Amino acid sequence: MGPPVVGCEGVTKRFGDTEALRGVDLDVLEGEVFGYLGPNGAGKTTTLRLLMGLTRCSTGRVEVLGLDAWRRRDEVHRRVGYVPGDVALYPRLSGRDHVDYLGNLRGLGRPSVATKLAERLDLDLRRPTRELSRGNRQKLALVLALMGQPELLVLDEPSSGLDPLVQREFHALLAEHSARGGTVLLSSHVLSEVQRVATRIAVLSAGRVVAVEELDALRAKSLHHVEAQLKGPVRVEQFEALPGVRDVRLEDGVLRCDAPQSALDPLLKLVARHQVVDLTCTEAELEETFLAYYAAAGGPDAA
User: How far is CA 117 from CA 12, 79, 86, 238, in A?
Assistant: First the structure.
C-alpha cells in the first residue's frame, strides 16, 4: 500500500445543534479498497460530502490526494470519481449524452471505456434517464464515475438497486481498479457486501469511528443468529460453554443462540451431535453487531 489518499483528522461537522460527526480520524491508503461501514444515520454520507468539498467541516482537517478538500475541491473533482447516495441525472438526456457532457467537461471527449463499462453492467446508453429504473440509473452513475479512470473512487451505497449478477461485475470492476493502483472508498450499511471487496474497514457509529480493522478481524466478529430444531435431550450448558456463543435458549426442542462467525464451526459441530430436524443460520443486521461488540467495548453508544 502507498501513502494516504484520504486523510481526516479530528473532523467534526455540526448542522445547527446536531453534531453529525464527532472527532473522526480516518486514513485511506493508496491502492486499497476501504470499506466505510455504519448503520443509516451514522454519518457516512456526511463524511463523503466533506471529502468531495460539497460541505465544509466545522473543525478538523480533510485532505484528498494531498489537497485540502474544501479549498481545492475543483481539482479534487477532476481526480476523483464520485457516486452519491442520491444520484441526480438530467431526465431528458440519454446515458450517451451524459457520457459526452461529462467527458467534455473533463477534457476526455467521448471515452471509449464508457461503452465497455456499460456493456459489462448491461446498461443501454441510448435511453433517456427518465425512462431508466433505479438500478439502471445507478449503473449510469457508476459508468460516469469510472470512465475517467480516476485515482480515487468515492462511492456512497453504490450497489443499491443492482441485481446480483450486476453486483458481481461491479465488484470485479473495483478489484481491477485497485489492481491498477487506484483507490476505493466504499460506504455501505451492508457488511456482507463490503466483505466481498474490501481490504480494510472502518466502523462508524453515531458520528464516531469506533473501530478500524483488517477485513478478517471484522468478519470473525460478524454476529449470526442460529436456530436448530433438535430431537432428543439437549444439554443447554454445553452450548453456553462455547466461547463467543451468547443468549442460548431452548424452547419446545428449538435451540436458539447468537454467535460470531469465529464460533460457528464448533457450534455447528455440537449441534450435529444431535438429531437435527431443521437448521437456520442468518447474519445479523450490522447495527446489531455494533451493539454487541463495539458499544460493549466502550464505543459511543456504550453509555
Answer: 37, 19, 21, 53
Q: Which tens digits make up the pLDDT trace of 215-268?
A: 777 777 788 999 999 999 999 999 999 999 999 999 999 999 999 988 999 999
Q: What is the C-alpha separation between 73 and 89, in angstroms, rounded?
A: 21
Together in a domain, 248 and 206: no
Domain extent at residue 108: 4-219
What's 175's domain CATH number?
3.40.50.300
Residue 300 φ then ψ, to 5°: -65, -20
Q: How far is CA 235 from CA 12, 35, 226, 253, 271, in A?
A: 51, 40, 16, 11, 11
**Number of structural domains in the chain:** 2
Question: Which DSSP letter does residue 259 get?
Answer: E
3 state SS of 214 = strand
65 with 81, same domain?
yes
Do residues 232 and 109 share a domain? no
pLDDT tens per residue across span 6-34: 999 999 999 999 999 999 999 999 999 99
Stated as kind and residue range, the H or E segment containing 137 is helix 134-146
Cβ-contact 50, 11 below 8 angstroms:
yes
pLDDT in tens, 191-229: 777 878 898 999 898 899 988 988 777 777 788 999 999
- pTM (predicted TM-score): 0.79
CATH code for the domain of 229 = 3.30.70
